[in-house]
C-alpha cells in the first residue's frame, strides 16, 4: 500500500519524524530559523505523553538532553548556529560519557550574530567535534524534507547503537521549505532495545555511572582509545553518499540545499553535452571517502560548492588525495548560490581541465 | 514541465496561504512541488513573499531568480519583482493596491483590482483567492477544483463556512482574467 | 547631519523634538510597539544629564537588537544575554564612560540570568534598561520566563501551565536583594503618567552609575501587540490589567533612601499607594 504524501514544512516534518521515531522529550530555546520545531513539539509531545521544556538557554537545553539521554530516553534538542555554539560543551560531555541524543542545527549565516538566512558555515564545527577534546559526532546533511525525515529515525538508531550524540545539519531553507513527504510508521518507545547502562535508579543491580572525568592520564587515554575504536567502526560502516551520473568526467560535490541547486546545474551542463555528475555526501561525518574512490575511477576533476567560503572542500581534498584537481565555489552569509552561477563554474572547470587548481 | 511562481504582497494579504494552496493542489495532482517563504525578523508588517515550484520531477532549487510567473499584490512587490519575471512570463497584478502598471511589454499581464473584487464579494481577505483564480485562468498548472479540495482539507472546522465565499472569489478572479485577456486579443 | 531645513516662525517655541541622542531614522518596530517609547526616554535622560559623548550603549539580542541604529551614541552589540558582561568589560577599561544595556526579557531573564545577577552581585556601575513584554518578540512570540500563567504563546499552546512551564520570574525583586544593586525599579509604559514615572526611574538608574553607587536597573512593562495578538490600545490596557498585578510597580531599592525600608518594601499599587492611579488612568490609544 502506498502511504499518503503530506505537504509539510521541513521543521515540522522533522519534529513529527522524531516523535514517530520514539522521541518523547524535547529541550530547546527559540531561535530563527528553526522555531517551528519547538513550537510543534510544545503541541505534539503532550499528546503522546512526552515532555517539552523550553530551557532558559541552549546551554541548559543540551544539558537537559544529556540528562534525558543518560536516563535512557530518546530525546532531542534543536537550534541554529549561535545556539549550537553554546551547545558544544554539552555535546563534548555527551560524546565523552557516551550518551545518545539528537541535535539539529538549522544553520544560518555567521560568524557572530550573523543573519538568519541559510548557510553551511558550521560544517567544520559539526564534523570536527565542535567542542573540546578528541571526539566526533555522526553528522547527517540531508537535501530534501523527505530525506531529512528518513534520517531522523536512522539518527536515533545510530545514536543508541553507538551511544553517541548524532547531529542533523539542515539549513534555514530546508527548515522553512514545504514539500510533499511520506512520514514513517511510528515506533513504540517502550519496545526499543533496553539500555542497561542508563541511570534509572539502581533497583536490584549495581549502580550505573555516567561520567566524563578521568583524572589519571592513562585512564583518560584509555577512554579516548575506546572512543576512537568506535569512530573507526562508524567510519567503516556508516558512510552515506549519492552519486548522480556515475562514470562522469567531472563531479560537483555538494550537500544539503546546495546539492539540490547543483543537481539542477549538473542537469543543465549535461544538456550542453558536458560529462558531469554530482557526488552528494549524506553523512558529513563519517565523510563518504568510499564514494570518492568510486568517482575517482573516471573523475578528472571536482568542483566543491558550499554555502560557506570553503569548509567541506578540505575533506574533499583529503579524500581525493591529489589524484585530481579540486576546485571550490562558495557563497556565504546567507546568500544562496544560483544554478546559473554553478553552471558557469562547471563550464570553467571543463574548459580549463587540469589547468584548474 | 517546471514552473516557478513568486507571490508577493503585504503581510496579511494571504500570499503565504495562496502559495500553500497551490502547492497542496499540485501535490494532490501527483506533481512534485516546493513552497518556500521569505523569512525575516518577525512581524514588521512589511512585504512577504513565497516561491512555489511545480514540476514533473523532484524539485532542485526551491528558489528562483527568474520566475515564470509573479502574482503581485501591492506596489512594493511590483517594484521588487517586475524585472525578475522571465521574458514571456506571466504577471498578475492587483491594481487596487498598485498605482502603476509594469513598464515591460514582453509579459502576459493580467491587471485587475483584486482587493476591490474581493470586497465586493463581501470580504477583502479573499483577495488572495481572486488573484489565484486569475492566475490559474492564464496558467492552469492545477485545476481550480484541486485548489478547492486543498482548501477543504486545510481549513479548520470552524472556518468551513468560508468555503463558498472562497469558491466565488476563485471564480470571480478567473472570470475577470478571461475578460481582460479577451479584450486584449480582440 | 540632521540639520533642519525649516525656519521656526517667530513667537513660537519648540515644545517637542527628537532627543539629540536618537538618530534620525525610522525604526523597524511594529506599529504600537513600546520599544520606541523606551528608546526615547533613555535618550531624553542622556540628553538631560549631558552624557551623550560619554555614553556607551550595549545592544542585546531581541527586537531591540537594532538599537545600535537608533541611539546616537557609541554602541556595541552583544551576544544574546551577555550584555551585562560586555558592559562590565567596557566599564572596567573606561570608568569615565556611562555604560548602559538595553535588554528584553528573553535576553535578560532567560539566557542572560547569570550575567545580570553577577553584574549586580559585583556592584558594577552600569545602567540596565530591561524591557519586559512577557514574550520573545523577535523570534515570533514564544514563551518568555516572564510570560504570565495562562498566557498563550507559540510554545505554550493553550496558555502557560505552571505544572510544565513554571511561574513568571520577578527580576526586580530578585536583583534588589543583592547588595551590589544601587537602584532597582519597575514602571509601565502604558499611560502618560506611568511613562513619566518610568523616565524618572531611568534617570535615577543613570545617576546611580554617575555617583558610582553600583548597578541601576529599571524594568519597563511593555507591550508586544503583534505577538499578543491585540490592538495596540488593548495591549496597553493589558499591561495594566494583567501584567501590573503580577509585576507590581515601584522602587525596590534606592541608595538615596535610607537603606532597609526601601529595599524590603517596594511600593505596591495593590496597596492603594500613589501608583494605583496609573492602573485607573486611561491608556493612550
Ligand atoms: C544564542 C542565541 N539563542 C537564541 C537566539 C534567538 N533569539 C533572538 S532574539 C530572542 C529573544 C528575544 O526576546 P526578548 O529578549 O524578550 O526581546 P523582545 O524581542 O521581546 O524585545 C531569541 C531567543 C539568538 N540570537 N542567540
Ligand atoms: S514583535 Fe513585539 S516587541 Fe518586537 S517590534 Fe513588534 S511589537 Fe515590538
Ligand atoms: Mg520580550
Helix content of chain A: 40-55%
Largest sheet of chain A: 7 strands, mixed
Radius of gyration of chain A: 21 Å
Shape of chain C: globular
Structure description:
The complex is a heterotrimer of chains A (357), B (186) and C (285). Chain A is α/β, with parallel strands linked by helices and 357 residues long. Chain A has helices at residues 10-20, 36-47, 58-70, 81-97, 123-127, 145-162, 172-176, 217-237, 256-271, 289-295, 312-320, 339-352, and strands at residues 6-9, 25-28, 51-54, 75-79, 101-107, 138-140, 165-171, 178-181, 241-244, 250-253, 276-281, 283-285, 301-306, 326-330. In chain A, the strands form three sheets. Chain A has a seven-stranded mixed beta sheet, sandwiched between helices. In chain A, helix 11 (312-320) links the parallel strand 13 and strand 14 (326-330). In chain A, helix 1 (10-20) packs parallel to helix 2 and helix 9 (256-271) packs across helix 12. The model of chain A has no long low-confidence stretch (mean pLDDT 97). In chain B, helix 3 (114-121) crosses helix 6 and helix 4 (127-138) crosses helix 6 (163-185). Chain B contains six helices and six strands. Chain B has a single domain, classed as Pyruvate-ferredoxin Oxidoreductase, domain 3. Chain B has 186 residues and is an alpha/beta fold. In chain B, 40% of the residues lie in helices and 20% in strands. Chain C contains twelve helices and seven strands. Chain C has helices spanning 35-48, 67-70, 83-93, 105-111, 113-121, 162-165, 171-176, 192-210, 225-228, 232-246, 260-264, 276-280; strands at 55-59, 74-77, 98-104, 127-132, 181-188, 215-221, 250-254. In chain C, strands 2-1-3-4-6-5-7 form a seven-stranded mixed beta sheet, with helices on both faces. In chain C, helix 8 links the parallel strand 5 (181-188) and strand 6. In chain C, helix 4 (105-111) packs across helix 5. The interface between B and C is small, with 5 and 11 residues. The site of magnesium ion has 9 residues of chain C, from helix 4.
